[in-house]
Amino acid sequence: MDLFLQQILTGIANGAIYACLALAVVMIYQAIDHFNFAQGEMAMFSTYICWSLIAAGVPYWAAFFITIIVSFLGGLAIERIIIKPLHHAPVLSHIVVFIGLIAIFNSTAGAIWDHTIKTFPSPFPSGSFGGLIGLHEVGMFFVTLILLLAIFSFFKFTRVGMAMQAAAANPVSAELVGIRVAWMLALGWGLAAAIGAVAGMMIAPIVFLDPNMMLGILLYGFAAAIVGGISSPGGAVAGGFLVGIIENLAGTYIPAIGSELKLTVALVLIVTVLLFKPNGLFGKTIVTRV
Amino acid sequence: MNTGRKIAITFAAVAAMGMAATTAMAEKMYGPGVTDTSIKIGNTMPYSGPAAAYSQIGKSINAYFNKINKENGGVNGRKIEFISLDDGYSPPKTKEQTRKLVEQDEVLLVFQGLGTPTQSAVHAYMNQKKVPQLFVATGATKWGDPENYPWTMGWQPSYQTEGQLFGTYVLKNVKDPKIAILYQNDDYGKDYVKGMKDVLGDKASELIVAEESYEVTDPTINSQIIKLKDSGANVFFNVATPKFAAQAIKKIYELNWKPVHLNNSVSNSVGAVYKPAGLEESKGIISLQYFQDVTDPSIYDTEPYKKWKKFMEEYYPDGDQSSSFTAYGYLVAQTMEQVLKQAGDNLTRENVMKEAANLDLELDMMLPGVKIQTGPDDYFPIEAMMPIAFDGEKFVPVGEVVSVN
What we know:
The complex is a heterodimer of chains A (about 290) and B (about 400).
Chain A: H1 2-32, H2 39-55, H3 60-83, H4 91-113, E1 128-129, E2 133-134, H5 135-157, H6 159-169, H7 171-176, H8 181-207, H9 215-228, H10 233-253, H11 262-276
Antiparallel strand pairs in A: 1-2
Chain B: H1 3-24, E1 29-30, E2 38-45, H2 55-71, E3 79-86, H3 91-104, E4 109-111, H4 116-129, E5 133-136, E6 152-154, H5 159-173, E7 179-184, H6 187-200, H7 204-207, E8 208-214, H8 222-230, E9 235-239, H9 242-254, E10 260-263, H10 270-277, E11 286-289, H11 303-315, H12 324-343, E12 346-347, H13 349-356, E13 360-361, E14 372-373, E15 384-390, E16 395-397, E17 402-403
Parallel strand pairs in B: 1-12, 2-3, 2-4, 4-5, 5-6, 7-8, 7-9, 9-10
Antiparallel strand pairs in B: 11-15, 13-14, 15-16, 15-17
Helix pairs in contact in B: 2-12, 3-4, 5-6, 8-9, 9-10, 12-13
């Protein structure tokens, strides 16, 4: 029973990691209508910026918010400089650019900060609830919820949020009603980079900071976003926790899966959800008129 | 290879060896890269790229060869020409550079090529070409296979050897052991587990109460650690690379689990593992070492340390004197020197290999009781190590040297 409870709580703790990144995935999907495979590496790079600021003596929360702003501007710049010229290029060209970005961020981080792991401070007190779940994980859980609330309100209640959704869903009509679609895309990139930065800064205290920090996590982030519904921030968060818990329980109680096939569980979840409920468990069904 | 050709080659080899034996007495025998005044030795090292920190090894070796060239006029009157090329830790590059060393520079042998993936890329090539691939700088177990790869030999204790030594340590020092193992799900991890099981023998299934693997893509290994703790084990064998080893140390502390914690040498680093995981959290972790820890002040007054320090100051002044890599390079270069000394004037590739497999050497920066020993069937030079524990600051010895035999 103890083992069961602990695996569930560890699942929730891992789930918070996935959920955080899944939010960034949803954000970019809302803005550009496809995945950004370099999302993880961008988040990792942001985390390094925060680490450098703290190492230089900047207090944690100041560094935290500076990093968010820098990441926002960085995301904006990437869209303006690299993605915009490719606006009418086929999806495959975009994917090639994403892979290029992965390599660039990964090796630049390695060249600047080397490849040894670094401790990243947590803003929350150390220690845990009876050894069951760390206080950082609990804090992260709430940060994820706050982030979720912010994103939800942004899309639901602000003009910019709605305009951004319109620009992603139907660029031509959006342009016709006076939305500056090109800038909406850039804004989406900026916001996604900022959310990714928060995710990175929350995740790094748990997994340690190194250039390959996000390698595996992004896969789980995608799984979370797809399971929950790529169009729904709330769904993505729920998906993150679901993936975390299912993965741990399957790894513990199904001998055939064990620790070796835990990642496979996440991938099977992606495929299953895409087969039976392509919009995710909590996603809206979008009907496109042809 | 078909049997007919195999037999033919064996005959040819026997005949060649017979001839070598009769003529060696009379005159000097030289393989490629050797003259009356010089010996060419090749090497590949990651001077750039993700593993560039290791290049200190190459620089220390180069410094040591400079020292013997200057002070002793080389080995047996022949100066060593050390050609060390950058492979950036990339296997295709290693292949290219090694070909260049063998075919253009025509070196006598390649020494201390660094990295498991990189050296694996030229493993077959070197054996086909019959060029010694000596004392490769990797812990994989496959380098000690004289039957199938007679031209390749490792140096440091292999992962499997270390697993065996940890097993021996547990049997000797832990009462009623119940072992839990965390290992990386690849050759490296499995080599360690196999080594441990070898030593435990029939009792392995009884003494090892839990085994959990992880993939390098796993975000955390917390789930595995919880399962291992749940097994009721009192020994935890940590076979993980630095990031995961540090995560394990942190999680075990958080869970308030207090097993005898054995940590593999891959992650036995204060800077890269214990510091990030937390010095308090890392207290008491046991690992194995085979040469002197140059950061331990208690050896600063000993003759071997002073000799090493003098060498560093004179021949490698910008080298890091607190790095284990520079001490390692110093030791492995001496092993190479010994092989060339033993080979005398018979510097054919065959004879170099024969002498490499005929070592019984004690080096002063090694820990007392750790010898370098090889034989025609034993391509594992170092098979003894000393258990040490981390006390929150430095390592302290916690028992006698354990050896495989």
